[in-house]
Amino acid sequence: xxxxxxxxxxxxxxxxxxxxxxxxxxxxxxxxxxxxxxxxxxxxxxxxxxxxxxxxxxxxxxxxxxxxxxxxxxxxxxxxxxxxxxxxxxxxxxxxxxxxxxxxxxxxxxxxxxxxxxxxxxxxxxxxxxxxxxxxxxxxxxxxxxxxxxxxxxxxxxxxxxxxxxxxxxxxxxxxxxxxxxxxxxxxxxxxxxxxxxxxxxxxxxxxxxxxxxxxxxxxxxxxxxxxxxxxxxxxxxxxxxxxxxxxxxxxxxxxxxxxxxxxxxxxxxxxxxxxxxxxxxxxx
Length: 285
Hints:
The chain is α/β, with parallel strands linked by helices. The chain has 14 helices and four strands. Helix content is 51%, strand content 8%. A hairpin with a 3-residue loop joins strand 2 (50-56) and strand 3. The chain is elongated and about 80 Å long. Residues 37-46 have low confidence and may be disordered.
């Protein structure tokens, strides 16, 4: 299935919100690279939500939504504002467009309050990723946990990435037993080399070595992975580490040789290391 065939429910919904004539439509047209929305100096030109399915890197398939002004007046205006609020119920990313000459006023403050109340999960994902990149794994875990507490579409790219990065964050801050909870979502997210590789690491860190080897071997059966090597040399390397720690040097060397020159595998072949089970839990990639 191509990107253009991705169902609406599996796309990240990005809504543009603001008062009338704040420049929402201009921003939407700039993002999409098309004249998707009519631009006019007349307030209230956008009277109904306008949607556009497209690919937006690095997010992937998205649905861009231009909304009527949130300060619309009169009976019809109230109906348009109600539609805008309905859009917020299915928005993953909310963009507030502000007229720089006017600044933040009551309309913007009300929208910001609604954004906060809605607790849009994508925001938690981005906060979690930011803390993860800073190696603040505990805070990353907190925000990922909040993001994943929502009823999310598991096929969305950012949801998949949030699940997997949360798993790595738990391992990096020592929550290895808590990470075993991922067995409960295996049926939902376990159809990729990346998730199976992550499960291998989770089992490995919990000294469940048979299960770890099994997951790494499954990961290596995939033709593609998002993380380089998760379906090849990294999986083989971790299998080698496990066998080496268990004292099966012959098996360890067999898997190290499958790593296609991966530097850590080459080093282990050269030095002929063999450790113990505690080291095995702490080693790996």
